[in-house]
UniProtKB/TrEMBL annotation:
Protein name according to UniProt: Pentatricopeptide repeat-containing protein
PPR repeats: 224-258, 259-293, 294-328, 329-363, 364-398, 399-433, 434-468, 469-503, 504-538
Alphabetized PANTHER family for the sequence: PENTATRICOPEPTIDE REPEAT-CONTAINING PROTEIN 3, MITOCHONDRIAL
Protein family membership: Belongs to the PPR family. P subfamily.
UniProt keyword Repeat present: yes
Keyword line: Repeat
SUPFAM superfamilies in the cross-refs: HCP-like
Amino acid sequence: MATPKILTTRYFLSSPRGGFLCFSSWMTPPTSHCHDPILTTISEAIKVSPTKPLHSSLKRILPSLTPNHVIDLINLNPHSLSPPSLLSFFKWLSTQHHFRLSIHSYCTMTHFLCAHKMLSEAQSLLQFVVSRKGKNSASSVFTSVLEARGTHQSNLVFSVLMNAYTDSGYFSDAIQCFRLVRKHNLQIPFHSCGYLFDRLMKLNLTSPAWAFYEEILDCGYPPDVCKFNVLMHRLCKEHKINEAQLLFGEIGKRGLRPTVVSFNTLINGYCKSGNLDQGFRLKRFMMENGVFPDVFTYSVLINGLCKEGQLDDANKLFMEMCDRGLVPNDVTFTTLINGHCVTGRADLGMEIYQQMLRKGVKPDVITYNTLINGLCKVGDLREAKKLVVEMTQRGLRPDKFTYTMLIDGCCKEGDLESALEIRKEMVKEGIELDNVAFTALISGFCREGQVIDAERTLREMLEAGIKPDDATYTMVIHGFCKKGDVKMGFKLLKEMQCDGHVPGVVTYNVLLNGLCKQGQMKNANMLLDAMLNLGVVPDDITYNILLEGHCKHGNREDFDKLRSEKGLVQDYASYTSLIGDLRKTCKERQKR
């Protein structure tokens, strides 16, 4: 018996966001859905699909199939098909080139899956819908989900929809879904609200996260002091200390008690912003409210005092901490050690270090590096090297910073031999030199007049892919000029310019000084003109270098007389005027 031909047509409904949604309708006399032969044929095909492919079973009716058949099959499920088998059929149908599922079909299947607690599968379908509809589609998709509620209704579908938008990165749409749920007096999907909040925080979208958190709190979302603490921490990191303070005030208003973490977060924020007074006020306030400062509280305040150079107060606070029975950790000790080392009191830093060992607190690499840096700065290389041996004996490996500080210290003390030995040790350990280490070596070579070694190190630096700064180039140029090799100085100047550097007045002054010392006054004046053409503004040092050159290689008596009349030369006009007068005087002297 031939299957009756089913005529199909399509009609369109306007969507709330503009545009149209397309649905299919089959123009046949109304029949009882439960006894619809097409639904029966589909159901039977799904049942035997493990042994007989769907395409083979449905080949005859596939051209007549419409999205409404699919919707009826899901809503009515007349043959009680299992949810996984229905989903499998739905997915197969979505791959058929000549059949297009409507958004209503997707929303109906999502409701069905949510009703059967197949939430990840439901989200996958809505994720597809969201990807097709794009950003700012929450209103239209929400309406479609709402309209698709049939025999299978579950509030979980709105939670899944929020998650789909959140995972797609459409956060404003996810928030819009929450607002629409609230508007329609539906159950608020708190779990999805928390998930969205966490995603916003993870992406450092602090202000939107706080605004959203306020909204959901007002809808009954359970307040959590940990979330407040995380928000305050982010605001402090963004230097929004006033907003963090307001947020701190909200903790009490929401019926919660600030924890020691809440206080510490805000104290840390104030200390980092330089407002130590407010930090100490908060410490007093927390104690008045029965929250006792911990090691972190004291460490943060001690660090703030050390940065302000208030080491006496830092030591007093450290003693107070110990008197309260709190055991300072490695961070506390290192903070105090650093405070003393920065002010040039490495000896006091060493005393704190010994106290640290007596209390059984193990120093880490940062502690040792802090001490080594302090000792190198005051020129106590022997003690610094002893600490390197000690840290190695404790099972700690010196890192790039350790070696770099030692190289810098040795170079400043003129001990290039030790610096080069340390460099060899770095290479042996597989540690690459950084910008600071290369620059320290170049500076040391230049200071000792070993300009060839300085230039070779500069080349090694470039080969390592590290770009020297203007000061490093200028050091080497100065070294060659002092040796009388101005030509090499100009070669390096050209390299600087080719490497994208724009040499400043200091570099030009070094070259001018080299030319003037050799009596090349004509070239010196040409270099001055070149400076001016490049927009480099000469300073008083520039002109006085040039005048000194004219003085040494001209008539000293005439020069001194003119200079006493003109005063200090600070600009180009004064310089040219003085040189013009000097030349005029020389010519008059020659005529006589």
